[in-house]
Amino acid sequence: MKAASVHEIKQALMSNSSKELAELCLRLAKFKKENKELLTYLLFEAHNEEAYIAEVNQLITDEFSEIDPGQNLYFVKKTLRKILRIASKHIRYTGSKQAEVAILLHFSLSLKRSGIPFMKSTALANLYKQQIKKLNAAIGTLHEDLQYDYLQMMNEC
Hints:
By secondary structure, the protein is mainly α. The protein has 2 domains: 1-31; 33-154, no CATH class. Helices cover 78% and strands 0% of the residues. The protein is built from 8 helices and no strands. α2 (18-31) crosses α3 (33-45) and α5 (73-94) runs antiparallel to α6. It is globular.
């Protein structure tokens, strides 16, 4: 079965009543955890983005606290990728460049402060450098005042 385009879906949704839309959203939420998480964000947390960013940053901090810096780099790499997947998922939910910068900056600073010898591993060093590139690109899209503030914080990375 071929999926309809976003435009076709939008047209079909516009023709439905609010009750039908609510039923469609509930049915969609039942199929995937990500759909439910996105709906939760949109309905309950989108109005207070700062609190959401703080919550995501706390989640990242908790995940970093479970990493033992002396552990095998293979397991450290897997855990860091898991943390990065969590961060990326929450960045997609917000759709905000400022949230993206705040979350990626927190990830990068947490990695730097964790004591993990990530520069000894090519894969981990590349992962870190890639996040710094994403961070620079996202900062470039922000307002000048915010750019200055975030660039000051980024100098710690």
